[in-house]
Write a structure and sequence with these properties.
The chain is mainly alpha-helical. Helices cover about 70% and strands about 5% of the residues.
Length: about 260
């Protein structure tokens, strides 16, 4: 389980960083930069992640040696590809590079959701494009970016199960090794499913509170959290608003006054 969590965290961190860079490149006015980003997204989203995982795992068959050399000169550094691309590196490369393509479209949608007037106003104040993106656009785009990013994180946790095809010791592969020895296939698969459900539930709770935090200001009143709803259900009058009572006013000739 720790290996599964490690793969999830590393792949998502690298994928998010790569996605932000690719999204900014995709929105660039330079056709070469935007074209490279578009080609990367097209290629990585258009091929199955399982194929990419197998490709990086067997990259040593295509390039037995990986090195740095001077053009038309001797090689300075040369190492064996199989020792360099370990199963963990192959799994991380496949998952992170694939995730970067999806995160690029998520970040791009978030950036486009911010009105253009925000960037124009920051430009009028003398801010550079990088400062505008970092201080003005991205903070406002987070409200759109966070929900699908949370979904991608949950999906990544489950996608790590594909790493079992390259015999790397994550959760599903460990379960397969055990039921290969004791032949209790269904119970072991149920155990693995319970672990996946537990951690996806934890991630879903974290996603909920992140969305709540970045959604402040989007609505006049935030929805109550599950704990607040439970407290209101158990203590009906605890959160009830207090309104002023109308009492008889003798000075008004027996009328009602506040």
């Amino acid at each position: 389980m720790l290996v599964t969590l490690e793969l999830t965290v590393v792949s998502m961190v690298v994928g998010i960083i790569l996605g932000v860079v690719l999204a900014v490149m995709r929105l660039s006015a330079n056709p070469l930069v935007s074209g490279f980003s578009g080609f990367y997204i097209w290629l990585l989203r258009g091929t199955p992640v399982l194929v990419q995982l197998l490709f990086w795992s067997f990259i040593g068959a295509l390039y037995p040696k990986v090195g740095i050399s001077i053009p038309w000169g001797p090689s300075l550094v040369s190492v064996d590809a199989n020792s360099l691309i370990t199963p963990f590196i192959a799994a991380t490369l496949a998952l992170a590079l694939n995730e970067g393509a999806y995160m690029a479209e998520i970040v791009r949608a978030g950036i486009l959701s911010v009105p253009e007037g925000q960037a124009e106003a920051s430009s009028a104040l003398g801010m550079s494009r990088l400062q505008t993106m970092r201080r003005i656009v991205l903070p406002q785009a987070m409200r759109v970016i966070v929900p699908p990013t949370g979904n991608e994180t949950i999906s990544m946790l489950k996608t790590t199960s594909l790493v079992s095809v390259i015999a790397y010791g994550e959760l599903l592969y460990a379960a397969q090794l055990i039921y290969a020895a004791n032949y209790r296939t269904i119970p072991l698969l149920i155990v693995a499913s319970i672990w996946y459900l537990f951690f996806t539930t934890v991630l879903s709770i974290g996603q909920y509170y992140l969305e709540r935090r970045f959604g402040r200001g989007a609505t006049r009143a935030q929805a109550q959290t599950p704990l607040q709803r439970l407290r209101r259900l158990l203590l009906p009058g605890h959160d009830a608003p207090v309104f002023p009572q109308r009492t008889p006013d003798s000075s008004a000739g027996g009328g009602l006054g506040l």
